[in-house]
Write a structure and sequence with these properties.
This protein has 121 residues and is mostly helical. It has one domain (28-114): Orthogonal Bundle (Arc Repressor Mutant, subunit A). The protein contains six helices and three strands, in the order αααβααββα. It is elongated, with a radius of gyration of 19 Å. The chain starts with 15 loop residues before the first helix and ends in a 6-residue tail after the last helix.
């Protein structure tokens, strides 16, 4: 059956055809899905929010969220792999911050809106 002949089994809504044409494919949504999985962990969510407002090293992040450095490093690796944070070397230290991407910025704003958190000045 040709794409134009395809129909939904029940077709309850006149807009179904328009919506179906705009439905993202798996490849378009995979990055967003992976990022949201990472933020499903409360610790990673807190670390991500913190790094949206500051560029910090592992030791300072660990102190701020009251965790061990190895535990924070584990979470940072996962956040970095998902593209939500980036790092740079400064001397012997590695500094982390939120990525400057549309996805990271959108998720930052969503977190603040849902949790009713105000950005620091």
């Amino acid at each position: 059956m040709a794409e134009s002949e395809k129909s939904l089994p029940h077709n309850h809504n006149e807009n179904s055809k328009k919506i179906e044409k705009l439905l993202p494919d798996d490849s378009a949504i995979t990055g967003v899905s992976e990022a949201m999985k990472q933020l499903g962990d409360p610790t990673r969510l807190r670390i991500f929010w913190y790094l949206c407002h500051a560029e910090e090293c592992v030791l300072d992040i660990a102190a701020a969220i009251e965790m061990t450095s190895p535990a924070v490093s584990h979470h940072l690796r996962l956040l970095k792999a998902s593209g939500l944070i980036v790092s740079r070397r400064s001397g012997k230290e590695m500094l982390y911050r939120a990525a400057d991407t549309e996805l990271a910025q959108a998720l930052h704003h969503i977190i603040e809106n849902i949790a009713e958190i105000t950005c620091p000045e």
